[in-house]
Amino acid sequence: MSNFTVQHSLADLGTPFSLPCNPTPVAVPQWLAFNPELAAQLQLPESYWLTDAGLTLFSGNTLPDWVKPVAHAYAGHQFGHFVPQLGDGRALLLAELADSSGQLFDLQLKGAGQTPFSRRGDGRAPLGPVLREYLVSEAMHALGVPTTRALAAVLTGDWLQRETAEPGAIITRVAKSHIRIGSFQYIANHGDREQLKTFADYVIQRHYPECADSANPYLALLSAVVSAQAKLIAKWMSIGFIHGVMNTDNMSIAGETIDYGPCAFMDAFNPAQVYSFIDKQGRYAWGNQPRIASWNLARFAETLLPLIATQPEQAVEQATATLHSFNAENEAAFLQLMGEKIGLKAATKDDEGLIRDLLNLMSASKADFSQTFRLLSRSVPDASQGAAIQFADSGSWQSWCASWHARLAAQNIASEQVQQQMDNCNPALIPRNHQIARAIERATTEGDLTLFNCLHTALKTPFTLSEAQADLALPPKPEQCISNTFCGT
C-alpha cells in the first residue's frame, strides 16, 4: 500500500521513557490468526499478510528496516502497592502506523522475549493467554468498547514452563497508545520535572492536542483522561465485563481497555464477582471498578502536580476538583447505557431506581447478565415471556415489569422500535469463559483451532446470532463454570 506511514515518536524520546531492545528469535513460527480488516485500516503492505515476511515479522525473527523496537518504561501500583519499576517485561513496541485519517496506532509484539524490564521472567507468553486476548479484545471492539486490538498471533515452536509445559505464542496488538498511568508514575518517581514536562507535552501532542491551547494544559490533560476513563468503565460495567487487574500500570492514558489478563464477562450477575485468583479481597470486583478507576486517576493526578501549579496547595486543589468530575461522568454514562439496555431512549435520574431494582433482582436470582438483557426485548409486549425465565421470584419480576412497562409507555415509541433498540445494544453473544477455555484446551492439547476460529467469526457480529452459532451463546452448565482466569506471565 503506497500510503503506508511509519513513525517512532515514543522511541525518539529516548531514555528514560523507553529502552532499545530486539526480540528473541523463536524456533519454528507458525500462523495462528491474522486480522486483514485491521491490517487494511493500518495500511500495512499486503506483503506482510499471511506471508513468510509477515510470519518472520510477527514472530520477531526478522525485522524490516521500518521497525525500531523499544521496551516502554513504567511503574505502577499493583493491588495498591507501589512498584517503582515494571516496564514492558515481555512486550516490544515496533513502530507507530498511521491509518488513512492520520491517527497513529502502536504496533507491539507481546511475548517476544526478555527485555531490560523482564526482571526474572522469560518474556514469553503461553498459547492460552494469547488466544484469550485475541478473542476478547476483538470481541470488545465489536461491542463498541475502546480497546487494544489483535493484528496477528503466531505459534513460536518453543515450549514454556509454567505450572506445566505449554506451547509459546506471540500476539501482535495495536493500540492508540500503550502509555499508562504507571508511565507517568515512573517518570515522576525520578523527580525530574523537565523529563515529566517533556513526557506530558508528548502525550498532549499525540493524544489530546486540544489540551495544548488550554490556559493550563496539564490540568486539561488530567480532565481529558478522567473523562475517557469514566466513559470506558461505564462501558465495561454495562456489558458485565470485569478487567480483573486494574493496577495503575494496566490503565491506558488513551482510555482504551489494555492488558487482558484475568479478565472475563460475568455469567450469573454478582456485583462482587472477581476472576483473578490473586484478588482474595475483591479489590477489582465488577462493582468496585468505578471506585478503583477513581483511585488510579488520583495517582495519575499526583504525578502531574508539579506541572499543574508552582504552589503545591494550589495544584492539589485544582487536581482534586478535576478528579471529582469522575463520579458524575461515570454515573451519567452508566445511566444512559443501562437505560438503552432496558429500552429507554433518554434515561433520567428518575430512572436510576428502576435500573437498580432490576440489578438487585438479577443478583438475588443469579440471573445470567447477558441473557437477561438480551431476552428483555421479548418481555416488552408480555412480561411472562423473554427474561421472565431468569427470575426465581415471579412476583417481584412482575412487579418490576409493571413499573418498566409504564415507563416505556410514557415514551410514546412503538414497541417494535423499542425492541429493535434493545437488540442493537444487548449482545446475543459474548466471549463466554467456558467456551474460551474449551478453545484454548483444544488448541493447546490437540493443535485444533476450529473452535477458536468459530468463536472469532461469531464474535465479530455479537448482536446477531445464526442458528449454527446458538450453542456459543448459552451460559455454562454448573460443571462448566470457571471462577478463575490467569494472566499468563
TrEMBL record:
Q: Name the source organism.
A: Rheinheimera muenzenbergensis
User: Could you say which protein family the record assigns here?
Assistant: Belongs to the SELO family.
* Annotated Mg(2+) binding sites: N250, D259
Catalyzed chemical reaction(s): L-tyrosyl-[protein] + UTP = O-(5'-uridylyl)-L-tyrosyl-[protein] + diphosphate; L-histidyl-[protein] + UTP = N(tele)-(5'-uridylyl)-L-histidyl-[protein] + diphosphate; L-tyrosyl-[protein] + ATP = O-(5'-adenylyl)-L-tyrosyl-[protein] + diphosphate; L-threonyl-[protein] + ATP = 3-O-(5'-adenylyl)-L-threonyl-[protein] + diphosphate
Give the record's keywords alphabetically. Answer: ATP-binding, Magnesium, Manganese, Metal-binding, Nucleotide-binding, Nucleotidyltransferase, Transferase
EC no. given is 2.7.7.-, 2.7.7.108
Role, per record: Nucleotidyltransferase involved in the post-translational modification of proteins. It can catalyze the addition of adenosine monophosphate (AMP) or uridine monophosphate (UMP) to a protein, resulting in modifications known as AMPylation and UMPylation.
Q: Where does ATP bind?
A: G87, G89, R90, K110, D122, G123, R173, R180, D259
Q: State the active site.
A: D249 (proton acceptor)
Q: Which cofactor does it need?
A: Mg(2+); Mn(2+)
Q: What is the name listed in the Swiss-Prot or TrEMBL entry for this protein?
A: Protein nucleotidyltransferase YdiU
